[in-house]
């Protein structure tokens, strides 16, 4: 691992992205993140969020640059090693036949190194996502939001040190959006690195320790939310202006479209 010194505090950096590129879809993106951080990857549609997540985690082989986690170059690891290091929630998981949720979760245990019995591991993630009532139901008969929570539970199997999620709050109602973000924040605080692609800037500002803002495949800014979500960056990346409401419970974004020149 790489150790950085900020003042008197030593920060252990586990994830390093160095000029990572994937054709024209991602160009020379660099940032680093420390163990214990929840990192949000944000940007407009087509900005490269999914491509960055996939290139970071070995789903895509970079055309240039590299991503390392705990000093291991991800693209050089065998798929089995990647699976034991990274839990991954894709944006659009492959459709499944009418298997039950319990079967779907058990099938996610393949090639994982478990610290407890398979049944205990399934019970752990079921409790985290509050999906006890779904276990006997066919996966395809759940609502979109219910399926998303089940898919996240499956990504959490194995308790890997790095969890990467592409739109984990997609299809969720407000209650479960907050529940999922609070869960991810808690998991990061327990010593994981969590990287998430998000559309909701209010959720990103409220829960993330660091944001990575992309625009057309290029890095606009990376750092603490207040330093990234500036008026200039929001205008350039999203074409909006914003007013922020700040309370003790968090922040909310009130966006407005920028006026186009006549």
Automatic annotation (TrEMBL):
InterPro entries: AAA+_ATPase (IPR003593), ABC_transporter-like_ATP-bd (IPR003439), ABC_transporter-like_CS (IPR017871), P-loop_NTPase (IPR027417)
GO molecular function list: ATP binding; ATP hydrolysis activity
SUPFAM superfamilies to which the protein is assigned, alphabetical: P-loop containing nucleoside triphosphate hydrolases
UniProt KW keywords: ATP-binding, Nucleotide-binding, Translocase, Transport
Gene3D superfamilies xrefs: P-loop containing nucleotide triphosphate hydrolases
Keyword Transport: yes
Superkingdom classification of source: Bacteria
Ranges where the ABC transporter domain occurs: 6-241
PANTHER family in alphabetical order: HEMIN IMPORT ATP-BINDING PROTEIN HMUV
Protein name per Swiss-Prot or TrEMBL: ABC transporter ATP-binding protein
Source species: Pseudidiomarina homiensis
């Amino acid at each position: 691992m790489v150790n950085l010194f900020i003042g008197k505090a030593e920060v252990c950096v586990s994830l390093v992205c160095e000029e990572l590129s994937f054709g024209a879809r991602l160009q020379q993106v660099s940032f680093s993140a420390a163990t214990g951080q929840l990192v949000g990857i944000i940007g407009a549609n087509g900005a490269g969020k999914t491509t960055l997540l996939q290139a970071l985690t070995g789903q895509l082989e970079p055309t240039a640059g590299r991503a390392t986690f705990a000093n291991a170059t991800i693209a050089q690891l065998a798929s089995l090693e990647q699976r034991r290091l990274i839990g991954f929630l894709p944006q659009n998981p492959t459709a499944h036949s009418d298997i039950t949720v319990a079967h779907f979760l058990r099938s996610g245990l393949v090639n994982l190194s478990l610290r407890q019995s398979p049944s205990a591991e399934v019970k752990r993630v079921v409790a985290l996502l509050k999906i006890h009532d779904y276990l006997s139901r066919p996966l395809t008969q759940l609502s979109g939001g219910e399926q998303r929570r089940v898919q996240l539970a499956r990504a959490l199997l194995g308790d890997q040190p790095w969890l990467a999620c592409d739109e984990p709050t997609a299809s969720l109602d407000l209650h479960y959006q907050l529940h999922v973000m609070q869960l991810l924040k808690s998991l990061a605080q327990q010593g994981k690195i969590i990287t998430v692609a998000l559309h909701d800037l209010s959720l990103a500002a409220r829960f993330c320790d660091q944001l990575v803002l992309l625009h057309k495949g290029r890095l606009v800014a990376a750092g603490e939310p207040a330093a990234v979500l500036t008026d200039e960056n929001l205008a350039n990346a999203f074409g909006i202006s914003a007013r922020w409401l700040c309370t003790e419970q968090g922040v909310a974004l009130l966006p407005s479209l920028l006026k186009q020149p006549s």
